[in-house]
């Protein structure tokens, strides 16, 4: 057993006084806690890394060439779009620029307090990467934020300013069973290209018999492509990630791992055409084609490499008419932030497969090797982490499992009621399954009540069900309300977040738990005390504030002990 402790370098623990050290010891600033290496004879403390000073090799960057020319507009009428996948030499030049300087680290938002700002996280290094490459990307961050402010509801919660990640507040998420466009969550991976529809086209190539280009007029020609209208729920695999973060820290990149709450889900009516019909118009697939790769016009960064946003889905999914190319959302043309003029909607899959600003569909033999498909959106075993993870250890996330969330009441909220607590929320299951039963518990998951069927929104293969219920609750004090859902295949949710936790912090599919302080006004003593709070003006909220009146007079106190056995007995 190792007894002695040795510090790996001469730096002191980052603390200036005892209160700071107490916070570190108690895990309130976990990112500052030294690692303990007990693998040898002596325990070694490894202090957190000191970030190097900013540096920049101006000569190396200058040698790359004129960035405004290298990364100029690719197409007339397409602002903020750079084509990377067709030009390896262009990728190499961007890589040289990015590796000839350093950038600030990701902000620590898991092992320390999450910033109380809106936007919560700024995406500083992502802004700097775009600006460093320059050309068409120079003002993408600023232009994208202007689009957010123009198209989204003023009460949106901006989890990440750039690339934009935002969700509606709880009280608005399920206010309607169909999510208004300006309240629908957005999970972007890069900037928002602004594309002139009249100058837009996309191509279908790869392992197709007749590669072709299509305009929006081509797609909208109903004599060629039957129009499809579908109500579709889209869910981010990061929905409810904040619960996993609250339990254990995981992968820390602020873009793939933004601290989503329960609002990273939304339902809208989309209009478009089946991708299967478009493939048929290209003469069908060649032998060996089993996957379809989608290319988006936004720029993504991974490991100091610039690339377009690229993912893939199996041909079998499109063959079943479950992949749409859409141009309309809730009766309106797609907002720019949601992919105008054309986006992919993959029914029952995670939102990451629904590429926005689509400009290319490529038929391929195997799943895409693009990083978003092959190295991200992976579900790892719980023993896999920073020290040992490999992409092949993770399951690529496609269909979302059954899940649900309580949108009201809120975590740690005080509820005054008369024996029933009104609860609201949503339930969803991916892959063409649907919620068949939603259950609530007021005692942490021991006894369950089914939400009445008349209190659930209508069923659909590809959409959520919103619900509302008056949950019986007689007890007072801190309780835990739990929600779980059963889908039509009788899949249900694991009961603990621990069972769902994984290094990538994806797919928080566990039963949703909300701690609530219950005050049952139906109880006579409680009713009298509430009247006393009101009469004396003593604040009831917050619950931790001490009452400002005598809760029991001495006469009542003495009378009680006169009528009952004393606290202690003689024998």
UniProtKB/TrEMBL annotation:
<dbReference type="GO" id="GO:0020037">
    <property type="term" value="F:heme binding"/>
</dbReference>
<dbReference type="InterPro" id="IPR008335">
    <property type="entry name" value="Mopterin_OxRdtase_euk"/>
</dbReference>
<dbReference type="GO" id="GO:0008482">
    <property type="term" value="F:sulfite oxidase activity"/>
</dbReference>
<keyword id="KW-0479">Metal-binding</keyword>
<dbReference type="GO" id="GO:0006790">
    <property type="term" value="P:sulfur compound metabolic process"/>
</dbReference>
<dbReference type="GO" id="GO:0005739">
    <property type="term" value="C:mitochondrion"/>
</dbReference>
<feature type="domain" description="Oxidoreductase molybdopterin-binding">
    <location>
        <begin position="189"/>
        <end position="368"/>
    </location>
</feature>
<dbReference type="Pfam" id="PF00174">
    <property type="entry name" value="Oxidored_molyb"/>
</dbReference>
<keyword id="KW-0560">Oxidoreductase</keyword>
<dbReference type="InterPro" id="IPR036374">
    <property type="entry name" value="OxRdtase_Mopterin-bd_sf"/>
</dbReference>
<dbReference type="InterPro" id="IPR014756">
    <property type="entry name" value="Ig_E-set"/>
</dbReference>
<dbReference type="GO" id="GO:0030151">
    <property type="term" value="F:molybdenum ion binding"/>
</dbReference>
<dbReference type="Pfam" id="PF03404">
    <property type="entry name" value="Mo-co_dimer"/>
</dbReference>
<dbReference type="GO" id="GO:0043546">
    <property type="term" value="F:molybdopterin cofactor binding"/>
</dbReference>
<feature type="domain" description="Moybdenum cofactor oxidoreductase dimerisation">
    <location>
        <begin position="396"/>
        <end position="517"/>
    </location>
</feature>
<dbReference type="InterPro" id="IPR005066">
    <property type="entry name" value="MoCF_OxRdtse_dimer"/>
</dbReference>
<keyword id="KW-0500">Molybdenum</keyword>
<dbReference type="InterPro" id="IPR000572">
    <property type="entry name" value="OxRdtase_Mopterin-bd_dom"/>
</dbReference>
<protein>
    <recommendedName>
        <fullName>Oxidoreductase molybdopterin-binding domain-containing protein</fullName>
    </recommendedName>
</protein>
